[in-house]
Amino acid sequence: TSAQIGVTGLAVMGRNLARNFARNGYTVAVHNRTVSRTKALVEEFGHEGDFVAAETAEEFVAALERPRRLVVMVKAGEPTDAVIEEFAPLLEPGDMIIDGGNAHFADTRRRERELRERGIHFVGTGISGGEEGALHGPSIMPGGSKESYESLGPMLEKISAKAADGAPCVTHVGPDGAGHFVKMVHNGIEYADMQLIGEAYQLLRDVAGYSPAQIADIFRTWNTGRLDSYLIEITAEVLSHVDEATGKPFVDVVVDQAEQKGTGRWTVQIALDLGVPVSGIAEAVFARSLSGHAALRAASRSLAGPQPSPLSESEAAAFADRVEQALYASKIVSYTQGFHEIAAGSEEYGWDIDLGAVSAIWRGGCIIRAAFLDRIRAAYDARADLPSLLSDETFAREIADAQDDWREVLIAATRQGVPTPGFAAALAYYDALRAERLPAALTQGQRDFFGAHTYRRVDRDGSFHTLWGGDRSEVSG
Ligand code: NBP
C or N terminus of the chain, fewer CB within 10 Å? Predict the structure, then answer.
C-alpha cells in the first residue's frame, strides 16, 4: 500500500491530524519515535480509515507515494531539527516535509533554505485550533513553495475547517516562513483578545458589581452581536462554571497567574525588530507576566488605591453597554496592529501576503474565529492596499460611535483603580494616530540637544542641528 500522506509525531496534535486525514479518505502512514504511540493509534482508531503503521523511519518513507508528503508534528525546536536530520537523507528531490508545529518563522526560513538546496520542499505550516481543531478541522497557514501548495493544497482544503460560507480555512500564505509568521501573529492577536475580554470581565465585576454568573449572561448576549466569537462563547462557559468542591465560582478558585508558551512573546519581539507598534499585544503579554510575579504583587498589596464607589443597578446596566463599546473598539485596534505586523513582515521578507485571505482563513477552526473576521476581509476586499484597518470607513465609523463610551469606561477604570492596560493602550494608539501633532517633535529637540542627532523641519527639506551649547543658531546637519 502506498500512503498519500504521512504523519510523524503522534502526540495529541499529530494523532488527531492523522485521524482527520484518514477520516477524509486518505491513506495515512503513521510514525512516532516511541513505537507504542503508533501502535496505540492504530489499535484505537484504526477503524476510522486506512492507516499504515511504520516502526522505523525507513519503513515510514517507503510507505509514502511520490512525491512524498511527510507531516512533522513533534515538539517545536530541536526535536524538529532532529526529525529533519533523520528523514531528509531518505527523501528524494520533489518530496515535501510539512512542519505543522509551532516553529519560530526564522527557524522555518533556515530549514527551508537548507532543504531547498537538497531539492526538498519544506513547508512551514501554522495550524490553529488545538487538538479538537486538528481532528475536526483546523485553520491552516502553510508557507513554502507554490509548487508544494499545488500538491498539498487540495488535501489541506479537505481536512481544514470551513467558514460559514463553506470556504476552506486554508490558503497558501506565502513562501518559506510566511505561514509560521502569520500563525505567530494569530497567537499574538489571541493574547490581546483574551486580555481585552479579561479586562471587560474585571470592569463588570469590580466597577459594575456583577457576579461571574451575571457576567456570563452579559457575554452570552454580546455573543449574539458583533462580538460573536469563539473566545466570547467560551468565556461565558468558564464564568458560569461552579467549582464542585467549594460551590464557589470556578474563576474564584483558580490561581490568578497566567502562563504562556511563547508565541505571544515572539509576536512582540518581532514587532520590536520590525518597528511596528503592537502596543495592545505587548500589554497582553506583559499582563500575563505581571500576574505571575506573586512576590512582587504580595509586597504591593498594601499600596494606596481609590475609595470604592459602587454603581447603582441602573448605572451598572448602562456601564455594561459602555464596556461592550470599549471592548469592540479596542478589538478593532488590536487587529489593526496585528495586520500591520503581518504587512510589515510581508514587506521585509518579500512574501506578498494577501491580508484579506489571511482574515478569511481565520474565520473557522482557530481560536480567534469570529464573525468580525468577515468584516476585516470585506475591508481588504474593498481595498487591498488599505493603509490600516482604521482607514476602512466601516471600522472608522464604528469607532467614532464607540469612542465616547470607550473614554468613559477608561475614566471609570482609572477612578476606581481597575487595571485596564489593553483598553488604555488601544485608545492611546487611536489618539496618537489621530493627533495633528505628537510630542515626537520635542523628542527630536532633546535628541539634538544632548547628542547632536539632528532634526527635520516642517517648512524646509534637509536635516538641521541647533548649536545648543553656543549661540543657538541653526546649521545644516
Ligand atoms: P508535543 O509538543 O508534546 O511533542 C511530543 C511529540 O514530539 C511526541 O511525538 C514525541 O515523540 C516527539 N518528539 C520529541 Br518531544 N522529541 C523528539 C525527537 N528528538 N525526535 C523525534 N520525536 C520527538 O506534542 P503536541 O502537543 O501534539 O504538539 C505537536 C506540535 O504542535 C508542537 O510543535 C506544538 O507546539 C504544536 N501544537 C499546536 C497546537 C495548536 O493549537 N496549534 C496545540 C498544541 C501543540 P515521543 O512520543 O517519542 O516522545
Answer: N
Compute the Cα dihedral for 412, 413, 415, 416 and give only its sign. Answer: positive
Nearest CA residue ID for atom 17, ligand 1? 79
For the question of whether the overall pTM of this predicted structure is more than 0.90, the answer is yes
Helix (H) or strand (E) holding 140: strand 139-142
Residues 6+ apart with CB under 8 A from 184: 104, 105, 126, 263, 266, 267, 270
150 an active-site residue?
Answer: no
The set of long-range contacts for 208-213, using a CB threshold of 8 Å and a minimum separation of 24, is 208/311, 208/315, 208/316, 208/319, 208/320, 208/323, 209/310, 209/311, 209/316, 210/316, 210/320, 211/249, 212/239, 212/240, 212/249, 212/250, 212/251, 212/252, 213/239, 213/240, 213/249
E-strand spans in 54-138? 69-72, 96-99, 121-128
Known catalytic membership, residue 183? yes
Give the CA radius of gyration of the chain.
25
To test ligand 1's pocket by mutation, which of 73, 87, 159 has the most ligand atoms within 8 angstroms of CB? 73
Q: Note the pLDDT tens digit of each residue in 47-73.
A: 999 999 999 999 999 999 999 999 999
